[in-house]
Amino acid sequence: MREQQLRDILGHMPAGVATLQGQELRYGFVNEAMRAVLGAAVEEGDAVAEHPGTIPADLLEVMRQVYDAGRPYVAKAYSLPLPATDGGPSTPRYFDIALEPVREGNGPVSGLLLFAVDVTVQEEARQRAHHLSIETRRLDTRLRVLTETVPQITFTVDAAGKFEYVSPQWYYFTGQPPTADLNAIWPLLIHPDDRLRVLYQADTARTSGVGWSYEYRLRRHDGQYRWMLSRALPELHAPDQAVFWHGALTEVHDQRELADALRRGEAELRFLADSIPELIWTATAEGFIDYYNHYTGEYSGLTKEELGPTGWINLLEPSEQAGAARRWVQSIATGQPYEGLFRMRRHDGRYRWHIIRARQLTDERGPRWFGTCTDVDDQYRLREVLQTQYDELARTNRDLDTFVYTASHDLKQPVLNLRGLFDELRRTATFNDPEEGEIIGMVDEALGQLDATLQDLAATVQEQRGLSAPVEALDLRSVADEVLLGLRAQVQESEATVSLDFAAAPTLTYGRANLRSILHNLLSNALKFADPARPLHLQVRSFLSEAGQPVLTVQDNGLGMELPGRPAPVFQPFARQHPHIAGAGVGMYLVQRIVASRGGHLEVSSTVGEGTTFTIHWFED
Amino acid sequence: MIHIVYMSRAVRPLSDQDLQELLDQCRRDNAARDVTGVLFYSHGNIAQLIEGEAEVLEPLFDVISRDGRHSNVVKLVDKPITERSFADWSMAFHPLEPGGFEALQGFLLPQHLPPPPSSLSIADAMLVDLVKLAVFGADATPAAPEPEHA
After folding, report:
1. Number of H helices, E strands in chain B
2. Between chains, do B123 and A310 touch, taking CB under 8 Å as contact?
3. In the list A188, A291, A576, B134, which could disulfide-bond A282, CB 3.0-4.6 Å?
4. Whole-model pTM over 0.80
5. Which residues of A touch B145 (CB under 8 A)?
6. Architecture of domain A276-375
7. Interface predicted TM-score (ipTM) over 0.85
8. pLDDT one-digit tens code per residue, A334-361
């Protein structure tokens, strides 16, 4: 009963148990587990050698030796190729196999006790661990090779700030011997100006358990300090417990120098831009101003924020804003340079003329715009004044030329008369004094000189002004337009409306320069003597008289003038109707002279406060 | 009342559906807060003008600038205005399938955008024009307003 119980217990044990009896090692008791291990069906009394099942020869040999020697033996993790239950390929399984000699009392060995404990799982785990450790070693080697070949210096620091590891590059870079005490030497190699900052920053990062990234100068083996970028990240063992910091030192000296040079260059340019008494600005590729120089603020009295990305447009004269904005958008769209003449408001509310110019710079940093606003107000106004003065001078000069011409022409007749009278005098009078004859000769000579001078004068002016040019058929409208073009400043200024009506007699056969001179004088006079109380209305009309001769009238609604009561007054040179208005006072005199010299006459009718009408009869009826 | 104009880049390209949802969201949310404006989108470029009361707009812009759907948010203008210029919320973009969008309320094809309303100052109108140019490129911004939309 007890033996049966024992057999049951052994029979259900998870480990394989068998007894082998006698020199031949015949199977005695074999439990279920052991049968599974052996694979083959074995009967009690079968010799192991004849029915080895899965037991290989070497194990059988060991069994025999244990039997002979009488000393137990344990084979650890012994591999037995168990056949797969589903007929697939056999998979090796591992067993701890114990061989225990059995003795009857103190007698000789009479058999063996065989235990087989399946340790496949443990063995596989062990093998995995083994492979892992090989892989770890491999990775470790790779990491080391990598850390020792990259140009950076790599390092590991512990929580106390002591260096655990530094790659050999550190020694190459610093020239320190491998025996150098890292923790003592390293801080000494940092540039004195950076040392305290670096130590503090590293300490702060370690205390708060975060990584760091900073730059400092480290002394190279040749004694030169080079800029290094130090970056490190903590290795956390608990969520907030950093134990090590791993990092790298990268030499950034050249980049740093370049960046410094760029920064310096940029600072210098900015200083330059801020020192120039001119509005200077830059804009992004999209056309938004991102920099105004110092002077822009000074000129406009506005800050960069007040001006904003497009606020410059507000500085322009309101009527010019829309056009300027449209052109700026167009420049941004096309990349075309921007240029324009605009009035820009100064901080005191005064507008000054500026030339605004902007050009696009395109390089690897993408397009940007650079612009300037140059104050040309003084030049602009000076030019306006000069233009007015020039026009005035040119007109006066022309008038004077014509005056000289007509005067020389007018003087010719009296000289001719004088000459006749003198000749007559010489012929009829008797001179007794011989000296008088000499005087007569001198007078004669002087008269000749006077005549020649007058001739020369007339010829010179005629030559210059084309007053003696032959007559031609002239289109009145085109000549009048030409004259009005020359007077456009005055027309605009007085806001005059000029109506031209040449339909009845469109052409006139006359000297071109003469016609221009006449029209110029009549129109400019009318413009000059406009009544400030009402806008000037000028009517120029051409028609044929009853006799079929051409007539021109120039009618204005200007100041008007007092007339001496004759319809065809004689205008005297330098006599001026309106002394308060600028002029040389020869204009109307000339007109009269020219018209008369060409065989016509001038009429005038005028009412003070209502206007004046000049009528030119080009040729006598 | 103030208006704010900003530009940004979409983190990933927006699909037609994304855009429609965005338009719906803008119209719905902003109507409730009395915020109006206009939104431009093209090829990842975003620009938006919003107008409303300062106490509504400033927190709204904070939310917008933290929105994960876009980055590089650059505020161009933030200043007081006297009247609204985009009373009806609208949006313009290049849809992949234009057909479905033509009829959508508040949606405009970029080339059909009207010129900035005259209620904007010239400086602000120019800003909107430049923003439009930056988002859509030169092709979609006619130099002169098209007569049928003028």
Report:
1. 3, 6
2. yes
3. A291
4. no
5. none
6. 2-Layer Sandwich (3.30)
7. no
8. 989 999 999 999 999 999 999 999 999 8
